[in-house]
Amino acid sequence: MPTIIVADENEGRRNLLAGTLEREGYTVTRASTLRQCEGTALATMPDVVLVDGEWRSGNAIDTSSKLSTDPEFNLKCRLVVLSTDSSQEYLASAATAGVDEVMSKPVDMNNLLAQLQKHAAKMFVPPPAEVGRGSSTGFFDVKLTAGDPSWTLPIFEKLLGEEALGEDFVENIMEKLEAEDIDTDLDPETLEKVLRTAFDALILGTQEEVESELEQSRLEDVLDAQAELVEEALEANMELLDEQPDKVLILTEETGLIPIDPDALNLTQRTLEIVHELLWEIGIPGRLADTTLSHRVEDAVGLTEDAIGALEQYGADDDED
After folding, report:
1. What are 140-179's pLDDT values in tens digits?
2. How many angstroms separate the CA atoms of 102 and 50, rounded?
3. Domain residues for 297?
4. How many structural domains does the chain have?
5. Burial (CB count within 10 angstroms: exposed 0-12, middle 13-18, buried 19+), residue 37
6. First to last CA, the chain
7. pTM listed for this prediction
C-alpha cells in the first residue's frame, strides 16, 4: 500500500485531498505546516510527498530543496508540488530544488491520481524543466531532458571533444609515432585534423548515411551493454530496499530490552526537538500574544500523538510477549 504525505495549510483542501487518496488505497499522513511535512517525511520516508505550492509561512520550494538533499529521501521518495504558478522560472527553480513534478491548480483530480500512481510506482515522469545537475567543478554536466538520449554522451565529449585536441596532445602523439619508428609525413596541423575527423566520427558518426548508422549503432551497442550491467546491479541491490530495517533495542529497568523501529525513534527525536524549541519560545515574555504560536502548538500536539503511538505499539507488543 503506497504511502503519501499531503501538506497543505488549508484544512478543508487538505482533508479533501487526503480523503480522496485514502479511498484510492493510499496510506495518508496530513501535514498543516511545511516544518511538520519536512520532519515527518524524513522520519517516515513515504513514497510520495504532495505539497501545496502557496503558503503564508514558509516556501514549498525551499522545503523541497531541504528534503531532496537527504540521500535516503532522494532515493526512496518523490516530490510533487501543486501550484498556480506555471512560469518557466518557477518550474526551473522547482526542478533545481529536486521537485519531481509541478502540477497546475485548480487540480484535475483524475490527472493527479494518474500521476501519483506513476510516482508511487517509481515510473519515469518528465522533470518540471531542463536544468543542469552538474557544475563546472564536476566531471561532466547532465541535462534532464525527457526523451533525449544525448545525456549519455557527455563523458565521450569530454574525452574526445574540442578541448582534448590541444597542442600538447598532438605533440605527444607525434613523439610516440617517432619513438615507435613510424615514418609519417603528417605535420602537427594535419595530424590534428585527422584526429578531429576521427573523433567526430566516433562521437557523431560519419557524413554518409550508411556509415553514420553503423558508427552510431556501434556506440549505442556499447552503451546498451553497459546499461544492462548497471540495470542488473541495481536490481540486485534494490532487493535490499525491501528488507525490513533492523530494530534497535531500548534497555529499561522494568522491561529489559525492547526492540523498536529506528524510524519510530527518529520521529520521536524530531518531535522532541520541535517541542523543545516551541517551549523555549513560549517562555519569552510577550511571545504568548503571537497568534502564530497556536498553529505551532497544534502541529506539536499532532506530532507528539504520532510519536507516542509509534512507541506504544512496541510496548504493547512486548506486554503480549
Report:
1. 333 434 334 343 444 455 555 555 666 777 788 888 877 7
2. 10
3. 248-320
4. 3
5. buried
6. 28
7. 0.47
